[in-house]
Design brief:
748 residues, alpha/beta, disordered N terminus
Length: 748
Amino acid sequence: MESHIRGDEDMFALLEEMGGGGASASSPTTEKEDSLIDNTIKNTFTMPRTLTQAFQLSPPSNPEVEIIRHRNHEKFKSDFYDLFRNCVPSSAVAAATLSKASAKHQESPNAQRNQCIRSVLQPVWRQMPAHSIWERLQFSLKTLEAGCVRDNQKTMGQLPPWCCIESEEQLINHLLCPSVQQINAWVLHGKQRGIVWEPLLPVPAISSQDINDQTNQGYRRNTFSLIEEEVKFQFIRSFKKCIGGGSREALPSVDKVYSTMKSLPEIDTFSDMEEVKKDDVTGITNEKQAFILQNIFGSQPFKKIVQKLHKKMMYLAEDTYAHFLSDLKKTSDRKAAEEQQQLNKGRKRKGGKDKSGSMPKITFIDDDDDATTDRKKNDTDRQARVICGGLSMKINIDHMQKLERLHKRTLSNILGADESSSFARLLFTLLLRYDALEGAGLQSAIPHSVFRFLHNKFGCKFESFASPFNCYEMKQGGDSEYGTAFGDTDAWFGSEGSFFGVDFLRKGGCFQANPPFASEFMECMYQRMHHFLSMTNGDNDTVDEEVPPIQFAIFVPAWAESSGWQSLMSSPYLSKHCIIDQKKHYYAEGTQHRRTQRESNAKDDGKGSYRIASFDTSVFFLQNAAAKKKWPLDDEVQEGLEKAFALTEDEEEVKKSSVKSKKLRQKSAHRQAKKQTTTQQKKVIKQQQQQQQQQPEKKKRKKSSTAGKKKLMSGGEDEMNIFNSLGLVDGDGNEGKQRKKSRSKKNR
């Protein structure tokens, strides 16, 4: 695990001094791929340090490559969830097996112990959330892989080909707008040598050139340790819920399991167990529960299940990554054939139309419910849709404008220009990458009010674990400085890359850290912080004027059972530890960029895009000697943090946002009140409408009958007048006497 705590001074010296690198003579790549790589070997252009740091591990991406990666990752997650659930039998099968075992009269002590352990292990395992395990495990696996890749880059003395830029024009073409063919060549070249990092998919090995080398073997051993540690952490949490009655699975009583385990001979109880660490059950105050968990974690049934999970997951990772490389190669060949066809025809594709569908399109979403409102066209409380390759990603206008500002600022700092035609491509790639991370809690951030407090109190300007969506945007001068998980997609929005690649000694100052809440990840983070603090602290805490002050303000859940929390708590550089009560503070929603302000207000109790914390938060302040002298910590720090976390700062921005959110809540409540009509009311309304429709019809019918009679009478009067004029009828309407006589004679 030493790779996680090393600095990157050697790597940056290598980037500045070396003028080339490239493929070795034994490279199995094709001639076409080697030609693409050789074009990037000549390093006569000094690439900005921030870009070198961001793209150190992984080549840039584009929408087509990201769609391929996203689909393979979704397939892997679905298969992993099924795999995890199938590690233990269903409740019905487990009950049948238990009844058969109990029918046997004579059992060895080990068999009795294993049967007792399975009665607790299996129902708790079925309650463990598979998605939470993968969300947290993914960060730890990617950190382990990145450390191995950094070690390979340093030991081989070989630059990644995408970092060898010949000119400013190549910088734009290779890093800003890379083609699928370039990315495919870079990935194959780097994977064969173990110098490329896959940002999303799990990989079966670091290098594909020698599967059985020392690096790959160490990587596999460490992946098993990470899986075991994560399973133990989630098992303890699920065990507590089952004991507390928050589960559907029936568990035997703690007293019964404890008495059964205690009744077995001690030598038999631990005969086939490995050494059990007491740290595994740290934070469990109940002695009986701690004893049961300690026996479960050291038992053979538990070890076999974890080994089974690890083995199948590595097979699944190998299959998924092979599919990804195959899909990438097919897309690369298709694009190359299309370009060759156009060259043969002697025509160039116009920039306005992209027949391959690789150019994303940005459209704005009109809410039908608000079509009747007098909302202005420039209202930022709307959503945009970015469409590419049959996928549609949503983002609200406020965050899209923020990303556009960050992108223009980054281009201005690097290229001296703030206009780019690739914003839609970069935006879609960014949205799709973060969409793969389902855990909204893992992507959550501290409120901006907390970062403002750190900035005003300690001059803090750097966020160690942020994203372009939730990073703090400096209002008055200065660029936003932050590290992110994905430098390949975030670099053109101002990210400086991974926290594990930042040189804190060069920067100096106060650094805020709100890492993903994975135990192994937090432990690796602490090891790197400890590395820089020990380098700059000197002997006996003596302050050297040339040494910069370094302070880390770390925000993590107050989980005493977590190994990461324990490492921070036992640090020799810990100056202050604050506890923020769960009910009194908020976190910024991890998916705030997808939702409008109205949706946020309807869900988050009027706190906008913030969510109330689901745990107590521990705030650790780690300082070297120079930081202790410059920033002494007192009780005002605790009070300031509590006030900032509660979103009660008396600032103009908070006031404006609260007033705006209140109005939006009133509008949304008014709309909901209109929509919420009961079925009985609807029936009454329909009946009234039907009655109103029937009554006019009757009136119309009466009017029409009288009108018809009037028409008939008027028509008869006209005919009688004609007969009267001819002398056939007298004025009184009777026939003449002569006519009557003649008719009577004829009738006789």
